[in-house]
Amino acid sequence: MSEQIFQPNPKFAETARIKSMDDYYALVKKAEENYEGFWGDYAKEKITWKEPFTKVLNESNAPFYSWFEGGKLNVSEQCIDRHLDDKKNKVAIIFEGDNGDKEMITYLELHYRVNKFANLLKNEFGVKKGDRVVIYMPMIPEAAFAMLACARLGAIHSIVFGGFSAEALRDRIQDAQAKVVITADGAYRKGKPYMLKPVVDTALEGETPVEKVVVVQRNKEDITWVSGRDYSYNEMIDAQSSKCEAEVMDSEDPLFLLYTSGSTGAPKGVQHNSAGYILWAQMTMEWVFDVKPNDTYWCTADVGWITGHTYIVYGPLAMGATTVMFEGVPTYPDAGRCWKMVEEYKINQFYTAPTAIRVLHKMGEDEPSKYDISSLKVLGTVGEPIDPPAWKWYYEQVGSSKCAIVDTYWQTETGGHMISPLPGATPIKPACATFALPGIIAEVVDVDGTPKPIGEKGHLCITKPWPSMIRNVWGDKERYVKSYFGDVTKEGKAVYFTGDGAMIDEKGYITITGRMDDVINVSGHRMGSAEVEAALKKDSNVAEVAVVGKPHELKGESIFAYVTLKTALDETRFEDDVAMVKELNTIIKKEIGNIAVCDNIVFVPGLPKTRSGKIMRRILRSIAKGEEITQDISTLEDPSIVKQIEAIVNA
Ligand code: WTA
Q: What's the pTM?
């Protein structure tokens, strides 16, 4: 099946923004012939500038690129105010809670609530341009209001996913030197309340840069209040004025930070700036999802991840669309939840992660057919490769073989989609991200920039800067350069390397082959092996540890840890093992959060290392997969360790 090509639905193509591959190639050509002209024209057309930009792209300080210099704008106005003329009564956000409660927020109402929130932050807590505000929130509309309120003031938000632990939250607060935290008492998941505020309390113990905590009420559970630090949003918001002048921002003023895992060290604060980011967020919404004025669009991500930033909040609102925010999980109360919501809201574009598709498929092959989901036009996936069986089910059972599936490849660092089918144009090859979007120059190359021959795996690079690219690693320019521009050069110039491998077929289709570094992709979430290893090393019994990804039926990858202990476990081995595994996973939950829990932890007498002491994770990955070791192990410090580890894993 994987070689079969699926043509776009001709009826859909008729009205699509990009209607054919001819259209697509024309845009690609336009960008190739006049790169700055291409981007400059779109920037003029799509952004409501307060002052026009004077330069499209400045490369003089490469790889610190700047876009649309001289331009002034405010992203919250781009997302709200400019729609008030013709869309004020249009629904901007549809919220559905875990328990089914609903809220429809029009653009006018969104304006009202964001302005009030901005005034609360500004007048009561002194938040101003450039301040960092950490948002640790559930999926409720106030999370979007908080983001947009920061944008209105020019404050830089840094959202920390609600599944991260107090330690992880503390690290991110420290790194960003955040002044304010916005959180909620908690929220609901699978019919039950869960808590967030106590996690914030722990994260703020001891010395902290945080002065104030704003708490939104959601589940109304009891929480403790620290006097002089914690304030109730619900008690204070009514008194705020609903008019807050938007700060005039430069194109390159920072909009937000979002921490993400790399292959080494602590998470990096990926910095996105204002104009370039919002431009591409809007353009990709229009091209890739092709949302029409009366459409309802739903992305199931969490605002704690980049997908939630760009494709729940910023992209949809910048284009004036109706976006759904869902607090719950796709499997509660049953595997029909998503399809029920699609039926009820007449969802036209549905965007989710392969891991959710695999779970829903497994739980109910025919579940979608129990609902009227005929409103669907475009289905999207993101975050990890989608496997052909999941793709087929999505295409046939969810999309009734008439919807395009846009397998969107991108990263926190890229701000928006890089490689993706266009629903009205691209003949789709299942489980393949297909072609780079117009304006994006994606190449599969060797480290010296030589293009890889057809069918051969190489480094996936974006070889020209693009408007929504990462601008910096917060507070660490050197790390920015080293992490993204340290591996591949083209014509002697450092180019952006994604960290992913890819290959191109004879027709030019790009297939992502997965990370080339030590990043593990668990249910579409990036986990750095170094981070998990650092957490495990906090246990005083642990001598050494190496963490790798192991293919997992539902999660894509699971985390597999090889641990050597300071003292061998004794005779009652089995029980000791179980207790130790539990202890180690408890540490991981504390240091990072549940998302980093290891499915496998094995205790081994040593790790395969080169003579210079480098751990050969490649060998450990093969063992975890149950593959035969084909790599040359003769260069290892102690080749016999491989057999010993294999015996333990396969026991
Ligand atoms: C992986 C998520 C295959 C890839 C938006 C990338 C994908 C990492 C795809 C970024 C896809 C994302 N096919 N792999 N369509 N989309 N990835 O930063 O390894 O959370 O580098 O951004 O996810 O993950 P991140």
A: 0.96
